[in-house]
Design a protein that fits this description.
Chain lengths: ~110, ~230
């Protein structure tokens, strides 16, 4: 089922405006006053706090399989993680994930 | 060629390696947006208005998951909060520019333009503001067109790709590839592990509220661990 058009437009507008205000915040309005150190210290971990939680259910219970864990997706996720941490290279990590995903699906399909 | 012209092209060149990162992400975003049910105009509106890959992917992932609109916007904006830090860090360098220039510079404030520019400003703090601005907009001019262009390409070719290619998994793959390089520091690793653990333990919570709780918990663990590392 696709989300309805109104919802999508509200999200696009809200996200566009909100993101712009975040970017403009200090440069535009607040000026040179520094942020308190405790806040900066927490802000450094926003991405690494949100993204892993967001990904975990998508990897373990993917929608496309009706919520059933599935080996090619689990192994592909692991491949991206290992290559990404080890080589510190985004492109190599994406390539490793895609190759694993299709490789394992091919092997399972031909069994 | 004037000095600012030359500096513009220097920013352009210094940022150009990131085209290799931005192009595949843009392509995957275009494809994933189509998978989620956005039409061409919606996909391009999001790409041009938001111009922040991770937040755009977050919104798609949550749309797929039937999350309330309010939570989708809140969580996607949380992913972009790091840009408040970028904005603050640019004040000493670009803060004296005209309002109109700062309005424009804010729009182009993405991970790559920020990273490349701030590195250059730290090498050459004595640069006059015109040169700093030229460098910044040069960096933006080199990668942003690729972000738009490859999103468009992805949206156009996405429909032609058969279901069996498991493109739903483009979203997790992109996210993991973004997060993995961060895990090389202990506080980031601790935060990521907390984030995953809380997501699994709290999956029962309604409206995807577990996502907010897991994110805040992980941020606190990251900040604590950072303090602990400094003391030891």
């Amino acid at each position: 089922m696709s989300p309805d058009n109104g919802t999508i437009w509200i999200i696009i507008a809200g996200l566009g405006l909100g993101t712009y205000l975040i970017r403009f915040s200090f440069l535009g309005l607040i000026g040179g006053r520094p942020l308190p150190e405790w806040l900066l210290r927490h802000l450094r971990y926003v991405a690494v706090g949100v993204l892993p939680a967001l990904i975990t259910p998508l990897v373990i219970w993917p929608n496309a399989t009706g919520g059933q864990p599935e080996p090619s997706r689990l192994l592909a996720a692991l491949a991206v993680l290992v290559v990404g941490v080890w080589w510190n290279n985004v492109i190599a990590a994406i390539a490793a994930g895609m190759l694993t995903l299709y490789g394992v699906q091919f092997i399972i399909g031909s069994m | 060629m004037s000095i600012t012209h030359r500096t513009f092209w220097r920013g352009f060149l210094d940022c150009s390696p990131f085209i290799l990162v931005v192009a595949p992400f843009g392509l995957l975003f275009g494809v994933a947006a189509g998978e989620t049910g956005l039409d061409l105009i919606q996909t391009m509106s999001m790409t041009v208005l938001v111009i922040a890959g991770a937040a755009q992917f977050t919104a798609l992932a949550l749309l797929d998951d039937h999350t309330p609109t309010f939570i989708i916007i809140l969580v996607s904006l949380a992913v972009n909060l790091r840009m408040a830090m970028y904005s603050a860090a640019l004040v000493p360098h670009l803060g004296k520019a005209s309002l109109r220039t700062r309005l424009l510079a804010s729009y182009f404030m993405v991970d790559q333009t920020f990273a490349v520019s701030i590195r250059q400003y730290e090498h050459a703090p004595q640069w006059p503001i015109q040169e700093k601005l030229a460098y910044y907009f040069g960096a933006a001019a080199s990668i942003c067109p690729f972000w738009y262009g490859f999103s468009l390409l992805g949206a156009l070719i996405g429909k032609a790709i058969p279901e069996s290619y498991a493109l739903d998994f483009a979203i997790p793959i992109c996210f993991i590839s973004l997060v993995a390089p961060m895990l090389r520091s202990l506080p980031h690793l601790a935060a990521a592990l907390t984030s995953v653990t809380l997501a699994l333990l709290l999956a029962w919570m309604p409206y995807n509220l577990w996502l907010l709780v897991a994110a805040v918990g992980a941020m606190m663990v990251g900040a604590r661990t950072e303090l602990w590392v400094k003391e030891h």
